[in-house]
Amino acid sequence: MPTVNINAEALFRSLGRRYTEDEFADLCFEYGLELDEVTSVKKQLEKQHGKSAGGDPGTESPEDTIYKIDIPANRYDLLCLEGLTRSLLIFLGKIPIPRYTAVTPVSPIEVTIDVSVQKVRPVFIGAVLRNVTFTKEVYDSFIDLQDKLHNNIGRKRKLVSIGTHDLDTLTPPFTYEARRREDIKFVPLNQTREFGAQELLEFYGKDTHLKPYVQIVEDFDVLPVVRDSENVIGSLPPIINSEHSKITLKTKNIFIDITATDEHKASITLDTIVTMFGEHCADKFKVEQVKIIKTDGTRELYPKLPYHKIKLQPSRVNELLGTELGANRIAELLTKMSLKTKVKSGALLIDVPPTRHDIIHPVDVIEDVGIAHGYNNIEMKMPATVTTASQLPVNKLTDQLRESLAQSGFTEVLTFSLCSTEDISKKLRKANGHENAVKVSNPKTLEFQVARTQLLPGVLKTIGSNKKMPLPLRLFEISDIVVKCAESDTKARNERNLCAVYYGKTSGFEVIHGLLDRIMCLLRVPHVTQSKAKPSYEIRQTEDETFFRGRCAEILIGGKRIGVLGVVHPNVLTNFDLNIPVAALELCIETFI
């Protein structure tokens, strides 16, 4: 959940009155927000630097008071002073809901996307804010919103990066292209000399703030740039803009460029910026569109500033919230939440503005009704459905087995549910061991590439990290594994497995075999030699690459294989950095439910 820092004096000026800390905290609560902390510029500096910022503690100016407000992660429209105060004023009924308009000029500014950027950062969209009036306060808010969007929806500029330029310093039309490093030279923002691309990467690669953004593109042979018709470079996304087109307090016309890997997220980002700061234009909330010429020759205008309608029955609202609100009252509450609503033929027609990208389903609208009505005002009622809760059978069995295995002298471990591809294939001597595994599409580390299909690798890793413990080690784990399943909606299913290992100077196969017999005794499953009248178990010699040949057996119930036990192969032990024998048992316990 992001936190925005708002200057208290600027906040009160925008709201049209002063609030005490408690009054503003109550207002935030009513709107579904939380006033996290009241601090000051001086206190923030002291916290950052770990020492006193100097000066007399009693001399802090009221203008330095900062309100830190927690904002829901999907409410991009509340990440700046303009959006927050506008929403609160609408909520208080002091201003009407504005209408955001995308204006198409007779000759819109054109931006051509060159095919060279397709493998680097393929998406570009833009907009123009005309006749903007900047103050220091508005300027700071403008920059701060960009930072918030970069870190939030932009995922630290990996998905979306924002460039803002003084349009009067550039000459349209623009081109978005990728160039070789030796062909890029410009003066970066807040610098006084020209940098080549390679020098720029090295220079900002040492900068604490910009280093993460350099890493996004440093491995590419070419780098993306935005240039005008006179070959003046405006920015090198996602790293830095040009000093030539720097925004200042005197800037009147702003060209906004959004480069991204995802067009939907880029559109949300652009809509948020122009709707928030459109109020500072001479024609309030009117944004000039830019024509984007894509690589396939198609042309589109941005921003689109889409409005969409949602139809909702009042009965559905009352059913989910447990209220008895009339249609007109619900319409009033939604209008307070910046969702203009009309009642037609008993149904609610909600007009969702481009500032509310968090509204994607009728349930999101119902949530706003609950906030505006006040959750504390909803009467508590007993559920109409009568039911008796009970523990899931597989969880109940798991708890019972955990206790019994602990009483048998084994210690429980809890390992990661994700592992590397090697852990379940090469290290276990199974070349195709990963074929039935569910893969993570974008793993952050090689250690977490797939969901585990066995518990054994995790337990062996645990032993490898605890080799200094007194021998023997008796460990067990009862947890879920994940395997592919074509019949499932998710194309995968969970299975609850039990794994136990013995690590000592001798193989300990008899210990693991005895533990299996004890488990079957507890589950009241007799050995096949004891009873053939009901399901019974047996072990049968088998071949498994993970175990010694001739020292491995499969566990069968009613002729169906449910697990395996044996002495682990020395090569497997070496792969997991172990040097003395291990006996292991792994079986699926869902068979016994």
From TrEMBL:
GO cellular component: phenylalanine-tRNA ligase complex
Main location, first listed in the record: cytoplasm
Catalytic activity: tRNA(Phe) + L-phenylalanine + ATP = L-phenylalanyl-tRNA(Phe) + AMP + diphosphate + H(+)
The keyword Magnesium is assigned to this record: yes
EC number annotated for this UniProt entry: 6.1.1.20
GO molecular function: ATP binding; magnesium ion binding; phenylalanine-tRNA ligase activity; RNA binding
Pfam families, A to Z: B3_4, B5, PhetRS_B1, tRNA_synthFbeta
One GO-annotated biological process of the protein: phenylalanyl-tRNA aminoacylation
Domain B5 as annotated: residue spans: 305-380
Keywords carried by this UniProt record: Aminoacyl-tRNA synthetase, ATP-binding, Cytoplasm, Ligase, Magnesium, Metal-binding, Nucleotide-binding, Protein biosynthesis
Cell compartments where the protein resides: Cytoplasm
InterPro entries: aa-tRNA-synth_II/BPL/LPL, B3/B4_tRNA-bd, DNA-bd_dom_put_sf, Phe-tRNA-ligase_IIc_bsu, Phe-tRNA-synth_IIc_bsu_arc_euk, Phe-tRNA_synthase-like_B3/B4, PheRS_beta_core, PhetRS_B1
Cofactors named for this entry: Mg(2+)
Record note on quaternary structure: Tetramer of two alpha and two beta subunits.
Recorded family membership: Belongs to the phenylalanyl-tRNA synthetase beta subunit family. Type 2 subfamily.
Protein name: Phenylalanine--tRNA ligase beta subunit
Origin organism lineage: Eukaryota, Metazoa, Ecdysozoa, Arthropoda, Chelicerata
